[in-house]
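Appendix C reproduces, verbatim, an entry submitted by the partner laboratory led by Prof. M.T., so that reviewers can inspect both the input and the predicted structure.
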Amino acid sequence: MRILFASTQGAGHFGPLIPFIDAAVRAGHETLIVGPPGLRARGYEFKPGASPPDEILGPLWGRMSSLPPGQGDLVVVGQIFAALNVDAMLPTLEATIEEWKPDVVLRESAEFASAIAAERHAVPHVRVSIGVALVEEASLALAAPALEERQPGVARRVADSPYLTYFPAAVDPSPFPLTRYRHPATEVTPQPLPDWWSGDERPLVYVSFGSVAATFPPAAQVYGAALAAAAELPVRVLLTLGGNELELGDIPPNVHVESWVSEPAVLAGASAAVGHGGSGTTLSALAAGCPLVVVPLFGDQPSNAVRIAVSGAGIGSSVDQIGERIRLVLDDDRYRDAARAMAEEMRSYPQVDDFFAGYEAGG
């Protein structure tokens, strides 16, 4: 079977596809990733498309810091994802489908050009979620006007397509007819870290704000707040920068900074995690049974923070509350108990590999 994977740029978009790509490779299927030129395809077979012109895209992103959250969503989803990205990527995706003839398209849910191309060539397409279903439903509604201009009826076809998510139902009740799959981090066991803290054995708190926050000035302030909070806590802190370079100033002695780590391996041994509500860290923490302090910064993160709080597996926080929220999560066993229950629920779902076996069998 030939499987075309389609993604927009960014680790939070491409990351959810990776377990399915690996599962397809294990099963002996042919795979091809199509995305914008800047996509970090991690060594997979990759065909780059195009990006919107900088002279158009740059000013739109530049306005984001001054827009209310609702208006920002309209720009990002309605204009960038559903219009500019689609117009840039659609020629490559159509040509690829015509020439390579995939049996199915697996697309991360913000990559809409692949759905249009698949519809035009009568190829089945499947969504892999990048966030909670409430946000996915809202994003599709925001995208629909631009999508309908390019391919009438495609928004409804996307809404009716198979919807795959790693989030447990207790965190993410969904309006879509969907199949849920276990997050692969459930199989990861704790791995000893280097002795970055000179024999200190106090609880480990993992802190990550993803790969975008450090590059977005209004959001980058969260790093200073997290360091100040860490300095006052009786814990070890591992802070990662999402592959970015960032000037942090003085680092408290109980804090170690790395550019990038294997989150699932670290979280399996952590007592708490602090993040911005991005799906990658959130899912890895849930799969490891690690309670969360969520400090939402932009995009779908406020909704993710709400869903985590509702589930009991963590708590939301403003930038200036990080320290007290970490203390609360560490001191109250209810958060860890709820997070462990989420991990058990995720383990109960079928494995990612099962999707392809079921798909080939017509399921």
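The first helix runs from residue 11 to 14. Additional entries are available on request from the coordinating office.
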